[in-house]
Amino acid sequence: MQTLLRILFLLGTLLWAILANGQNVEFSKDQFGSDKDGLKEAQREIKLGDEWYDLDPPRYEQALPHYLAAQKFNPNNARLNLRIGNSYLHSGFKPRALTYLQKAYQLNADVDPNIHYYLGRGLQLNAKWTEAIAEYKAATPATSGKNAAAQVAAIQRKIKECENGRELMARPVRAFIDNAGPAVNSAYADYGPVISADESVMLFTSRRDNSTGKQRDPETGGFFEDIYQSTRGSNGQWSAARNLGAPVNTDGHDATVGLAPDGQRMLVYSEDNGGDLDESDLRGVAWRKPQKMGGRINTGKSHESSAAYTPDGRTLYFVSDKPGGLGSRDIYKVEIEGRGPAVNLGSVINTPYGEEGVFLHPDGKTMYFSSEGHNSMGGYDIFKSVFENGKWSTPENLGWPINTPDDDVFFVISASGRHGYYSSFRDDGLGSKDIYQITFLGAEKQPMLSQEDQLLASRIQPVKETQLAPPVAIATAQVTILKGVVTDEASKQPLEATIDVVDNSRNELIASFRSNAQSGRYLVSLPSGVNYGIVVRQEGYLFHSENFDVPAGAAYSEVIKDIALKKLDVGVKVVLNNIFFDFDKATLRKESTAELERLQKLLVETPALRLEISGHTDNVGNAAYNKDLSQRRAKAVVDYLVAKGTDKARLTFAGYGDNQPVAPNTTKGGRQLNRRTEFKVTGK
Amino acid sequence: MLKIFTLAGALCLTAAAAQAQVDTVRASTLPPAQQAEKLYNSGVTKYNGKNYRAALQDFDKALALRPDFAKAYYNRATTRYELKDYQPAVQDYDQAIKLDPNGYTAYFGRGQAKEALGQKPEAEQDYGHVTEAKPDYAPAWYYRGALRFEKADYKAAKADFDAAVKADPNYAYAYHDRASAERQLGDFPAAVQDYTKALSLQPDLLPALLNRAAARRRANDPKGALADYNDYLAKKTDNPTAYTNRGAARYEAADYKGAVEDFSKAIELNDQYAYAWNNRAAAYLKLEDYPKAAADASKAIALNPQYAEAYLNRGHAREMLRDDQACQDWRKAAELGLEAGSSYAAASGCGSE
Description:
The complex is a heterodimer of chains A (684) and B (353).
Chain A: H1 2-20, H2 29-32, H3 36-53, H4 60-73, H5 78-89, H6 97-107, H7 115-125, H8 129-139, H9 146-170, E1 175-179, E2 190-195, E3 201-206, E4 226-231, E5 242-243, E6 255-259, E7 265-270, E8 276-283, E9 286-287, E10 291-292, E11 304-309, E12 315-320, E13 330-335, E14 343-344, E15 355-360, E16 366-371, E17 381-388, E18 391-392, E19 396-397, E20 412-413, E21 419-424, E22 434-440, E23 452-453, E24 463-464, E25 479-488, E26 498-503, E27 508-514, E28 521-527, E29 530-537, E30 544-550, E31 557-560, E32 563-565, E33 573-575, H10 593-605, E34 610-616, H11 623-643, E35 651-655, H12 668-674, E36 676-683
Helix pairs in contact in A: 3-4, 4-5, 5-6, 5-7, 6-7, 7-8, 8-9
Chain B: H1 2-27, H2 35-48, H3 52-65, H4 70-82, H5 86-99, H6 105-116, H7 120-133, H8 138-150, H9 154-167, H10 172-184, H11 188-201, H12 207-218, H13 222-235, H14 240-252, H15 256-269, H16 274-286, H17 290-303, H18 308-320, H19 326-335, H20 340-347
InterPro entries (chain B): TPR-like_helical_dom_sf, TPR_2, TPR_rpt, Ycf3
Signal peptide (chain B): 1-20
Organism (chain B): Hymenobacter daecheongensis DSM 21074
């Protein structure tokens, strides 16, 4: 009897041991004696996998296919499951790690001393925040000591990330996240999209198989990086990506990190000196060979990895790991043409962790960047901060599902604020990393109900309850995009010209751009809050002036203005859109100064030039009065020029009232065009 | 509610008939010269028997015999009112007033007839005359209050209803309509109180339940509101408006599935009821069932092509369905008066046109 009990007890213990350890199945003859060839092949795959896995540093992505082959033969080995899980943790598709890690733990709870930490990672990467926190807590070392303290701090940080994630996921951001499609993405890694402000052009980096030189990087086994371009048609579809070719793309790695809003200047990352930033500009359809950006940006052996231009093109924001920062990588800004050193953006933006992927919105005040700090839900998250009243606002996490527990970096956004672009590993991808387009939907749009009640007892007719429509947040982007084509008026051919953007109130040149030499296309970003004079000029042509008064707080708009430049010739007329008078008076406003100085300069540069300055009105009001007012205004301009030294004999003035309309007076827009000051060349 | 009209008319006539009856007794003993009075009395009897056409003939004959018979004009006017001959009724009241300017009943009757003819300012004037001539006559206050309510002059309407309940503390309609005026003025607790009073005076005044529910919703008492709707629907199950309004209350309480059930029931009762279709679209939006939301909003628009809310809601649905026509819908909503539509279009990259 006692023997029987002992046997039962032993059997019980055995059963318990088996259950506790799941059913860990070794790759051994005991288990797979019947399939010796299969076993041998599986063991070989494990060995090959181990060779990559055990390298220093480990090469997880190379190990993974071998391990997965062995897993097919025997899916119930704790060690193999652990190694597959860990390899996935270091791959693009990190969330896939979880099932393998859970299986490894189930097969053998002692499979690895760090298994709770790995499970925490796997759960966090699957956005299972609460369960992840429990595993991280289980992973916290009990012992004290210097090493343990660092470990505890790291785990605390992970727990904090999970708490952030839980909070952010509870209030998701409304957005569509769409794969940019097969015209842009390939089966290989596609990433780092940059766009022009109007989203007409996208440049990105890809490691696809038609790269320049067609060679593979011995380090990672993938093709070398090249820069590709796609353009967006009027139907919103991206064209098939085109390799930019030489001289931008070389046999080695070539990656784009930034594009000016007008798409005419590009920032390129090169591997030189530990990682440098180069610059290339577009001449017609050809990008020029990238040039180094200089020692104030590329310092020593430090790694400069990402950069963005301000909309005036004068300042560069960039990321560097140079010494003296607040964390591993920080964001700096520097005046490109200036002499001052690059300035760290400070602790509101830069954290003790890494910052990466800086982008400036064409409104000139909103910055998007990625950070491992702030309230990241894991890895790098994308943040937004606005520079107002001399300081950066507290960075705001763009939120779930744009940000994920993994790295979300190199995000750019259109001037309209409607579309963002970034790259991500997602299950709906075409393979490896793909470029995605985010459509921001804004706050939930509230539906409206109707109802009626019979409010008067003696009446049958019900009364509809009037409801107020819910308030709507106005578009956040506060910038006007002005774009078009510059041509020669006579030949109609595209023209390369300089576009000056002037602050009329301060009589100050804000920025200068060039239209594209081949297409004549130009684009300027006009952040709200300025009365802009836009002057298009080119040697041998009379200048063309446009006025855009964009009040503070004005919402996004896109204006298309094609400009035909006129050659200097007798009889040619030019409208002076940046001359302003007080209402109903002939007093020149101070905002006119820049335009008047421009006219003065033209007269100095062209000594034989004779001009008639004329005033014009719309047909509103008394005709005789209008004629008199327009004449007095023309005279005011002439008086200014004479006072500045122009010979009186070269100038005449005339008031035409509404006799020479340039547009029908039937619309507000037409009347506005008719109210103008212009000059006519009367001699040269 | 027409029933109440009749009742009020009958009440007036009773007042007049009370005077006329005195004549009846005397008339029977009077010589043939009193023939007009006899015919008059006969008309009154026929009127009370709801034999209006015959009554009319008697009053006609009485007036032919005695053209200065003010009471006969008054009663013929009242009879014509019952026969919906409003314009001739007004003419008779005019005569009655001319012959007897000191009474108030003819003014009140003319007010009713003019109201029926759609001559509301004139009607209001006649009721006003009665309120001055006989301030304790509650119906005059009440009917003027209703006219003022319809002009959206809720403060003046409330003052009239105040006077009506002062003159007649058991006047359920006046309490009810005062509650509605209070509701329009934003005083929801007072509205709830007056609707409750109206219900206690006249428990079968069911619309008061629906109205109290609506006021309770605005007074942040969603539970009380739902209880009222449930109460109403337990008593009356064929009113699509009641289902639609309970659906809206459920929607406000974030019970979108329950809301869909109610709107569906309303549609079942009346598939031409655009509000129910529109509101179900809104509930489907909340349930993120965008194809159904778009389809319901389309149905509402088909029933009423000027329905701004339905365009707005369909715009929301179409946006989520990635349908560019969302922009058109939002713009149409704006064109029809919902300014928010323009902002939605602008904020959603709809372009400039």
